[in-house]
Amino acid sequence: MIRALYTAASGMSAQQANLDTVANNLANSATAGFRRRRLQFEDMIYQNMITPGSPQTQQTTSAGLQVGLGTRSAATEVIMTQGDYNQTSNTYDIAIQGSGFFQVSRPDGSIAYTRAGNFHPTNQGQLVTADGDPVIPSITIPSNAKDVMISQYGIVSATIPGQATPTQLGTIQLATFANPGGLQSIGGNLFLQTDASGVPIADTPGGNTGMGTLQQGYLEGSNVDVVAEFVQMILAQRAYESNSKVVHVADDMYSQINGLVR
Questions:
Q1: Cα angle at 218 between 217 and 219, to 5 degrees?
Q2: Please, what is the Cα angle at 54 between 52 and 55, to 5 degrees?
Q3: Could you read off the pLDDT of 107-166 as tens digits, one per residue?
Q4: Which positions ≥6 away from 238 have C-beta within 8 Å?
Q5: pTM reported for the whole predicted model
Q6: What are the C-alpha distances in Å from 74 to residues 39, 77, 105?
Q7: Which of 28, 38, 178, 262 has the greatest number of beta carbons closer than 10 A?
Q8: Which of 217, 240, 30 is nearest to 119 (CA)?
Q9: Which one, of 68, 30, 58, 48, lies nearest residue 224 by Cα?
């Protein structure tokens, strides 16, 4: 009975972590560029009562008798499906249509990656994120610039008074990874490179490396499917209830065994 108690408890603990993941997804259902996560489980070690393949007779072998000892949460997978587009008509809102991440410089000098394109210029004209992290490569918008345009290939141009043609101010580059699901989330809509994600490949939007293109005046929303998350929440609740029922039944059986000595 003790084995059943601990096995069911592991299932309850795993489903609690699953519910925590669902709650985080739902909380960020309106966060620009958010990528939902999915919890992955794996079974724990097995107790071999009879080892599979052990000789049963001289001519036969046993299929084995193994008792599982529960489950555990193994990893959270970042789901990189495209989010919905929201038209904002804001000059500095940019959505990526396809694969790729914007590159930004963090205060410690490291490079982070994001799908949230809600940028704005500082008082010096430098294009930064909502938290003030500069876009890489650096783009500076002159204070007297008018009609700032960002093409689908990342070329930033503007009309400068006194000049007959628009002036090119720079080019936004994107980065992609062999395994974007292996990126590390650090909050603030930012990801960091890891050994699991591989090294970044930087290129201009729409380039030969498969980068997506840009859409000015749009923001990519979260890729959280609220209905699917509610279904997952119900499944987690039912699984938790089932494991708690096992704990209750095992406790009743253990109580009956203890009562035999009276």
A1: 135
A2: 140
A3: 999 999 999 999 999 999 999 999 999 999 999 999 888 899 999 999 999 998 878 788
A4: none
A5: 0.82
A6: 8, 10, 31
A7: 28
A8: 217
A9: 30
